[in-house]
């Protein structure tokens, strides 16, 4: 699966692509990440990518020409790709979106906006989906782009190595993950729950489900409501 990131700050992604799971996935050709500098597509002699908004107001707006040409170039690299734009106006990104992207395996063009956003005509003509990282404001779309690459990549076959490792994670079934423990068995007077050292896998599974349910009900009642609704079907 290929991710094509359109940004005016390509260096933002250097350490991200050279670290941990993403680096290993790239080295094993399980994913491909292409970074396109929007400035390289600007026809302005100073490679300008922003201008004042029509109608006045604070801030600057990203101009359409460099973005449109960058998207057109990305479409040459991957004709069937889907264009995603990161904006507070978009639907809040969720695990279900990551799972859909990973299942479809459609290449993604990730457009990182800045300033007051991009010219609306880009959204009207070129963008397939608008996504928000959450109900807060960031300086640009680079962090949400990394979020999508990471969350989708880890669901692709072979990326994590253990194909079952993502099946019981938080949000996979509208439940938060159960508490995890490792050695030592006693740390600062706190012991690992006895059931986890019993060797009784049936009881361990039962305990983990109960813990997931109680964690979700206490911390994310919205998710718990969805979980119970699915259970009652």
Automatic annotation (TrEMBL):
GO molecular function, one term: tRNA (guanine(37)-N1)-methyltransferase activity
Biological processes annotated in GO: tRNA N1-guanine methylation
Primary location: cytoplasm
Protein residues bound to S-adenosyl-L-methionine: 113
Entry annotated with the keyword Nuclease: no
GO cellular component: cytosol
Positions of the UniProt region annotated as Disordered: 214-233
Known role: Specifically methylates guanosine-37 in various tRNAs.
Keyword Transit peptide: no
Species of the source: Alkalibacter saccharofermentans DSM 14828
Quaternary structure and interacting proteins, as annotated: Homodimer.
Entry's localization field: Cytoplasm
EC number(s) on file: 2.1.1.228
Domain tRNA methyltransferase TRMD/TRM10-type: 1-225
Protein's name in the database: tRNA (guanine-N(1)-)-methyltransferase
Source organism, top-level taxon: Bacteria
Keywords: Cytoplasm, Methyltransferase, S-adenosyl-L-methionine, Transferase, tRNA processing
Stated family: Belongs to the RNA methyltransferase TrmD family.
Any single Pfam family the record assigns to this protein: tRNA_m1G_MT
Annotated CDD domains: TrmD-like (cd18080)
Annotated catalysed reactions: guanosine(37) in tRNA + S-adenosyl-L-methionine = N(1)-methylguanosine(37) in tRNA + S-adenosyl-L-homocysteine + H(+)
